[in-house]
Amino acid sequence: MASLTEAITTAREESSNFTNGIVSGTESPPSKPKRSKYRHVAAYHSKLQHSSLSRDAETTPSFLGFRNLMVLVLVAMNLRLIIENFMKYGVLICIKCHDYRKQDLILGSILYASVPCHLLVAYIIELSAATAAKETVGRQKKTEKEKEHDQKVFQSTWPYTAFLHTLNATLCLAVTSFVVYFYIHHPGIGTLCQLHAIIVWLKNCSYAFTNRDLRLALLNPAADPGLPDIYSSCPYPRNITIKNLAYFWLAPTLVYQPVYPRTPSIRWSFVAKRLAEFVGLAMFIWLLSAQYAAPVLRNSIDKIAVMDIASILERVMKLSTISLIIWLAGFFALFQALLNALAEVMQFGDREFYTDWWNSSSLGVYWRSWNRPVYLFMKRHVFSPLVGRGWSPLAASGMVFTLSAVLHEMLVGIPTHNFIGVAFFGMMFQLPLIALTAPLEKVKGPQGKVIGNCIFWVSFCLVGQPLGALLYFFAWQAKYGSVSRMRPDMPTVV
Amino acid sequence: MASLTEAITTAREESSNFTNGIVSGTESPPSKPKRSKYRHVAAYHSKLQHSSLSRDAETTPSFLGFRNLMVLVLVAMNLRLIIENFMKYGVLICIKCHDYRKQDLILGSILYASVPCHLLVAYIIELSAATAAKETVGRQKKTEKEKEHDQKVFQSTWPYTAFLHTLNATLCLAVTSFVVYFYIHHPGIGTLCQLHAIIVWLKNCSYAFTNRDLRLALLNPAADPGLPDIYSSCPYPRNITIKNLAYFWLAPTLVYQPVYPRTPSIRWSFVAKRLAEFVGLAMFIWLLSAQYAAPVLRNSIDKIAVMDIASILERVMKLSTISLIIWLAGFFALFQALLNALAEVMQFGDREFYTDWWNSSSLGVYWRSWNRPVYLFMKRHVFSPLVGRGWSPLAASGMVFTLSAVLHEMLVGIPTHNFIGVAFFGMMFQLPLIALTAPLEKVKGPQGKVIGNCIFWVSFCLVGQPLGALLYFFAWQAKYGSVSRMRPDMPTVV
After folding, report:
1. Which positions, given as ranges, span the membrane (chains A, B) (predicted)?
2. Residue B352 and residue A49: Cβ atoms within 8 Å?
3. Which of A2, A7, B16, B352 could form a disulfide with B368 if both were Cys (CB 3.0 to 4.6 A apart)?
């Protein structure tokens, strides 16, 4: 049949001569008849050959075509689901359906305004500590005795500083959590407030810890050579300024440094593009959740209620694709679009907010690479110091995950008004998973990496995420019923 | 959070020292604190970096992880559909439901036995022609005059030979088609008979054409040097034996050669494996069609009847995945498993029954590579001779596709008792598609190839196949109603 392309090829190649056609065509028979006028005798089977898919074949063919096919099938399957969804539910997107209570918005804004004030408090605490430190250093011509005395004085003052910081930081988190849990009904608004509070809390801690060590370094410079060179442009007490703190407050990082690498200028076009991406993706996510995630979640409630395993599994799988897309879009919107835009505006130089976590060959690599800001905070202010105090790395890591598990539960449990601990145990569950997959990083050849990568995707995106979402949604429904008033005409078919 | 793996890494690497841990870990901060005892001051942001997904990034990261994800999502989505299917229909597979009529089986077996006899007839025709040729050649010391006379004689005899062959071959095809169309109800049995008849018909043609040219070459050897060397071990008249023909009859090729490349021995283990693959895949296909394809087809009938475009589209898409899997499994079962097993038993050396058609960058490449036996037949006995007679390659190719379109319609239309011409026009439609995609083969860089490959997959596997299946099924239903008695309790929900 195939000869047509040859034909066309030949035709194109201005040679009406068939043999040339064949020659120029990709397909010339192993031994070509020498321009025989007897065309029916050509020996097309002239040598031993294996099928390209046989084990015996010398070279395995490329399977790139199948990759293209996979993409197409995925598109087709999802297009079909979209059509099916519309045929079942029509258009579910309606802004009015969401009941944003006035109170939620007011309280939310108040929290947003008040939370950063705690950073101001932290600044004042640091300022006093800094002046104290300056005085001690100020006195010239010190003897060793005096130096030691200074140390003692400092050692005795630190606890107070520490106490004040703890009080301040904890207050920030506690108040927000309390208000969100008891007075802000809408989970969306609640989550935003809670997220903001946690971020500021982390920044608070970093600010306090870093300045403490800087102060120590100042008090006995001899003891330690190890202050990064980059700080030299702004040595310790000089960094305790409102401006410096404000920069840290807005900068896309949770790790305080007196000095950060900076970009020479702001490319506003870059900012605009990133913001456009963010807005676009945010809307995309909203549409997806309203049109696809919501009905699936709604339909799965009775299934969970009766604990029908088969249908729960079916629901989780249906949800997994949607939640996966939402997750990926959300990741890109936050870590690529928003943080880059923010960084550009702040001329913040280090844009490594993530590395290629999607290739993670183990859960460990994933947690190291997907959320760099949090990872760096945990490493600098929790893991590293604990190990420095002689904790075993394992114990220190346990601590890290316990802390982040608590924060995760606060972030999800409080806005949804349900401390069901799924987020907490989900995080804690990472420890065994990491231990399990860690060996795969070491495996030679791609095999191990692929397996590890698949374990990561399945455990995290295809099962963990949707299952978690289902459970919190179920808990919510059990407590309040639907967030969005269901339109009466809306069927609840699976 | 991530530190745990470092932890584990560290722990594993017998160094309880954190700094070493970091060093040995994949993650060491750009400028590491020089074993500072002040751990909170480490400068983790110490140089300008871009996000790896940004345009500015020096190197684009690998996206292998996303390939793995695609595979997983495909598996998950289809698993879900399987569960959904069972929840809707339960188990649909039941052997009794199929009504194999006794008559069908009897007639089918008779046809299977009778069809090869036509090859025997072809042999007898060739034998007489060969003896005639031998006589003419036999006489020694020929003058040019005599030679010309011989030519004339031969030229005059060929039409009779040709006529007999045509009669014989056509009879073979005509009788089978007649019986299948009017007396064999079951489309499965019908297709098998029809396929067998077409194969034998093609072998018949090849046998006749090849021997004609061999005879010509024998009668004036001077005229043409071009007999393939591989034939020398069995020069013309010696190849006209029952044994030689029987081998061609059973060999996995449609192109007759007096001699084929042969393998030294039969590896029975190889044969067993291939047959196991074939049986396994055959059952797999049967299960798929019974459990998944059948209900989808059944549910789409009313949609087609009322010509509801949206739902027809939805049906075609739902069908496409299934028909695609069936198609791929069928290809592997026939071209890899069965033909290789057959070739091994026949010690047939040239196993190139297909090349990597899945990477086809155009429809033309696809038709050249997916079904080599038919492609080689068409090229050797239709395209090449026509071009030899001065046809334009385009016209010759048109001829090739018209012929194969006719054969396709016979293969599908006759067993389903519906000449609706979809198969025919489906094949003819390939001509414009090939012309359309041919330029993409020439495009530099992967871009063009990917586009061409996608056009191929969509046009052929995602739309062409399922749409064709739908239409023939619809025609069948319109004429006879369901093939398998539907169980009364079986719902026909979408």
Report:
1. 104-125, 162-184, 275-294, 324-343, 386-407, 419-438, 450-475
2. yes
3. A2
